[in-house]
Amino acid sequence: MIVTVYPSLVTGKVLAPRSKSSMQRACAAALLHRGTTEIVHPGKSHDDLAARDVITRLGAVLHESADMLTVTSRGVEPLSPIIHCGESGLGIRMFTPIASLSPDPLSIRGSGSLVKRPMDFFDEIFPELGVTIRSNGGRLPLDINGPLKPADITVDGSLSSQFLTGLLMAFSAAGARDVTITVKGLKSRPYIDLTLAVMKAFDMKLPEVIDYEQFRFNDTPAPEQPATIRYAVEGDWSGAAFLLVAGAVAGPCTIDGLEWDSTQADRAILDAIEKAGAVSTRNGDSITIYPALLNGFRFDATECPDLFPPLVALASVAQGDSFFQGAGRLTHKESNRALTLQEEFGKLGVVIVLDGDVMIVKGGSAMRAASVFSHHDHRIAMACAIAALRADGPVIIHDAEAINKSYPDFFRDIALLGARVELIS
Predict the structure, then answer these.
(1) Half-sphere CA count of 348, side-chain side, radius 13 A
(2) Dihedral angle at the C-alpha atoms of 207, 209, 214, 220, nearest 10 degrees?
(3) 50 with 11: CB under 8 angstroms?
(4) Most CB contacts within 10 A, which of 20, 80, 212, 227?
(5) Per-residue model confidence as pLDDT tens digits over 16-28
């Protein structure tokens, strides 16, 4: 799909997309819950649909009506020997430990950029948990045979916290007692807070968290779960970040449905927007962003690397240089996002310098009309679209359907805010 976005001002109000981080974790918890789960406001992104397919293959029964997804489960009881996680990095890393609770041999697969991402973490850890594994040189597919047996282990958390999410849920479901997961160099701590919040909402046994370096499951038995659990999926700060930046560079506009006290890491976008000089106001779960004269700013995105694309769109409009810490976290995303942002925003006339773990965006120059490519990366497509609002002519985005991974309604929503958008199938 090719989409052209023209220079535009935006105003009005839209509802934030649903959080795929919250939705996928809810699917995993619903699978592990022996009973019925009512998921309110279920997400419908490609990653969300992949999570639904995974739990169906692992034994859950799904029924959707109106704005609710009902999941009935007896735990992990695979109906298929092949579990396909689509292109979801969270899905593959979270569901693999959960699937390994089964004694059945299973093949864990994925598609797109996921097949190129390193998965040797499982090769190192699973044998310590009684799970046999054969990988493709540390990459997909993963052939596993459980069941997983909780034990004291040490894991590297510097690449991603998503492995830990799956282990925490699997250990809890397996009734872990008197065992500790020790984590070195944990990144993206807020995502672990979200995992723990979902586990708590589902009355799963929680570990004692010691400085985010040890997650200790004690000898107390797991709480008794109710027969029916109701869980509402949060609004997505990751997707809403692009809308909030749109308000800062071409607004004002209002985004509804965002929980102010959310544990989502990407809530930090508000801090970045305010550092740049824009103004935000809050009314319940609605946030309004007002444009202003934006200036270069500094921001540490180590704990929220998914914010780099909207941050670059924001910094491109600001006067002066912006410095973002955490660029090293961008290598193993849907694309190598640091290089992709540098290449595609370069086409718009924006200079991006990469200096180790720091990304420097040189803002202030007039962005020019251009033809850009998403590199099959949803966040790159959305970042280019927001930047186009302040370009000197139309920006043509190729492979724009990449947005379906996380935010299928993105182009519709910015059009509702007043952006001029033309789609070519």
Answers:
(1) 37
(2) -30
(3) no
(4) 20
(5) 999 999 999 999 9
Domains and CATH numbers, the chain: 2-17+235-424 (3.65.10.10), 20-232 (3.65.10.10)
d(CA 172, CA 100): 13
The runs of H, that is alpha helices, within 188-279 are 189-201, 237-250, 269-276
Amino acid making up residue 400: A
Catalytically annotated residues: 306
Element (H or E) spanning 351, and its range?
Answer: strand 351-355
Pairing of strands 61-65, 82-84: unpaired
Residue 171 contacts residue 181 (beta carbons within 8 Å): yes
The per-residue pLDDT for range 110-150, each reduced to its tens digit, is: 998 889 888 989 999 999 999 999 999 999 999 999 999 99
Q: How many CA atoms lie within 13 A of 312 on its CB side?
A: 35
User: If DSSP codes are grouped into helix, strand and coil, which group holds residue 135?
Assistant: coil
Residue 224 DSSP label: P
Q: Please list the residues that pair with 108 across neighbouring strands.
A: 83, 142
> How many C-beta neighbours within 10 Å does residue 283 have?
9
Burial zone of 284 (CB within 10 Å; 0-12 exposed, 13-18 middle, 19+ buried) = exposed
Report which DSSP code applies to 319.
B
